[in-house]
Give the backbone structure.
Amino acid sequence: MDLSQIIFLVLAVVILSSGLLVVTTRDIVHAALWLIVTLFGVAALYAVLSAGFLAVVQVVIYIGAIAILFIFAVMLTRKEMRDRGPQLSATWWFSAIVALLTFAGLFLLIRSWTGFGVLAGDIPAGFDAVGQLGNALVSPNAFVLPFEVASVLLLAALIGAVYIAFSRK
Amino acid sequence: MTTETLIWLIPLPPFLAFFLIVLFTNRNKSVSHTIAIGAAFLAWAGAMLVFLRAIGANELGKEPFTSSINWIPTADTWLKIGVLVDPLGAIVLFFVAWTVLMIFVYSVGYHNFGQPVGDHDQAGLPPEGATLEEHGHKHRVPSVEPMYSRFFAFISLFAFGMLVLVLSDNLLTLFVGWEIMGLCSYLLIGFWYAKPSARDAAVKAFMTTRVGDVFMLLGIVFIYSATGSLSFKDIFQPQVLHTLAVVPTPILGLSAGGLMGLLLFIGTIGKSAQFPLHVWLPDAMEGPTPVSAMIHAATMVSAGVYMVIRMFPLLSLDPRTMTFVAFIGAFTALFAATIAVAQNDIKRVLAYSTISQLGYMIAALGSGAYVAAAFHLVTHAFFKALLFLGSGSVIHGMEHGVLHTGEHTDAQDMFNMGGLRRKMPITFWTFLIGGFALSGFPVLTAGFWSKDEILASTFGGHTAVFITLSVAAFLTAFYTMRQITLTFLGEPRSPAASHAQETVWTMTTPLVFLAIFAVGFGWTGIPEHFPILGGILPNWFHEFVGSTLATPPEAAPFNWIPLLVSLTVALGGLLVGWLGYRNVRSAKEDALQIPVLKRKWYFDEMYDFAFVRPSAWIAETLIYQWMDKGLIDGLLHLFGKATAAIGSTLRNVIDKPVINGFFGDGTAHVVQGTGRNLRPIQTGRIQQYMLFSLIVLLALVGLAYYFLMRV
Amino acid sequence: MVPLSWWLILSAGLFSIGLFGVLSRKNAVAILLGVELMLNSVNINLVSFWRYGDVARMAGQVFAIIVFAVAAAEVAVGLALVISVYRQRNTVIADNIDMMKW
């Protein structure tokens, strides 16, 4: 067991346990906070995977925007949370079984192919990941179209969200 | 034009006249009678031309004018029809053409052409008179017949039928003419169809002659099947006749020829109103008088006698048939004469007289007197037509008197007449000539010569017939003189008679013509050995007509007895009739009003009981009620009910429960139930939706992995 | 040296947890939290495949970037919907938001 594996395992435990807490905590605010922990963990994983840009983006976007948005939403729908009944629906055990089945299936699938046992290759020296990512995003030979479409999507989502949440006085 | 072509054309004008009048000129009276009389005149002209050529021809009996065409194909031969004018045919054609033309002209006046339309006249009833306003006072005059054109159409058809019959050379077209005349007799006797008595008389005439016609048709069929032909020429071949004479038949032991003759003779019994089928002829007086003249003198009844004269070679094959014929003829002659003495209607007397005279002809034929029968046929046609037309004239004169006085007097009852010799002279003298001819007044009238010849022929060998005919001759003279005395002599017995007047020229001119023939025609047949007069004129008639037969018959040898008997009965009957009735004032003084005679020996009642009522019962009760309504309708109703039952069963057992219930409504219920039960799945809760879809997804992925990855 | 399968198993685990959360939480906002977990697991998957494959091919990272954008958009619209429903019905419990039932 070398260092990379240990780091990995620690981070995995953090992510999984905080994720579990997200879905089982009674208090929804706590759930949002545990989500933030999970997201931090994921960012760390990106860093381990040498995707530095993505790690930063994860922190900025997910934690800085999305998680905050969740907290806003929780606050805006707070009245309902006065009563602290069980937060899981009546058939939670059935959902648990389904989730377990899903995990089991995926696990078996991953195990069944020996090609997944590869180890990470070395990153060539002087490899500018960020520069390459930037090139890929705007180069016409690469992924400029999905990029532009994603921006249109964000525009649509923006307008849509404003429209839906707009309250006429 | 050849004689044969001319013969074919003779019946054509009356036939065309019938169609033209019926189709086109029904409304116009003068055009209709012009067409009809024109056609009769053309037929008369053609007939005269043929007759002249016939009497000028050599050996007409052996080589008659004849022409035939193939008509019906029968296996490998043809049934031929055609025309034939031999001496017998020529003579008959002569009198038919003359009497028909005279009757046509007479009808113009009889139906009051030129008179105004009647006040209340309806088509279907006799005209009843019109009121004329003249110089301020009204008087009633005879009115024109409403169905004037129809009458001329029908008598044209009648003339056509008779001409076809006379000119035929075969039994088939003879029968066609026979039946056409049967139809026309029905149409014309029932001419005034709104009178119930006229309708009944027409049906009676048709039905009675039909009975005879059935047997005649059997005879014709028998002849055809035995000899293979219907032409006279083929039937009268010596070998054919000989075979027919010897071949026996199972009926009454007659030979084939005898049976054929008997069957054909029964047709004559019907058509010529012999006993027992005589009942229709007196009732036929319901028709207008020209019709009575036509039917009972010129054409129809003569056709019956003509047919048996024509078929004489066949009839004479079997002596038993001849005896039967003679018996029927003689019996009828006496029987009818007894009835005639008790009749008061002027036309009824003449009707029974006709029956009686036809009996004479048939008795003569049955006794083998071929020429005598033909001679009497011709003379009778002339004087009987004369008498009928004369009686019509008398009735018209009386009608004038009735209209003048305004009383309801029967214009046909002789006891209302009297003294008409002063009022209607032409009618009187012509009627007198006709009456004397009928009675057989010596020398001057044709009836004497023909009747005398019959008596002479039957004297030798057929004594019973001779005696019967002599008695009948006495009665004939008696009732004829009774009729003349009551009608014309003495004083008028009713106001109508005293105001009678002579009729128009269209009615009196034919009377004159016929009177000339009634006098003159007899002189063509004076027997050779007659005292004083015999030999002055040759017995042309005997030579001419006798040559029709293969072996011309011998003239009867002269004998004083029949001549004396004939003179006695004729003059005696006339004298007794005059003496008995010249002072009679009314029917009550008439000693001969015996009920049995007046009621025609109750034959009508017997036939009604024996035939008419059972037929009506069979038709009404048996066939209509029981079979038609009960059986056949019952079956149909049963079918109807059964079908309805099947239908309703199918509907209630199969249609409603299975098709509607199970398939129709059942499907709907199933769908509805399924929908109702599946609907709750859509709860609106997304977590449930996601759960379900995940489960299915897992299942599908599992299945796909299981089946695909195991490879 | 961490083999790829460990990364994938981690991602599968996170995915299952997120799935459980989506299927069983009452609060609508909590459901969306579960969705976020699932999206993150997907991202981990994508980036690990990038790293353990040909590093020069940036498709993995690009895809992850796009997933970020999509996740952001989805969260924005989803929460806007939840708030809108809350204003209408005064509830955020998913089981009570059943207006689309039959």
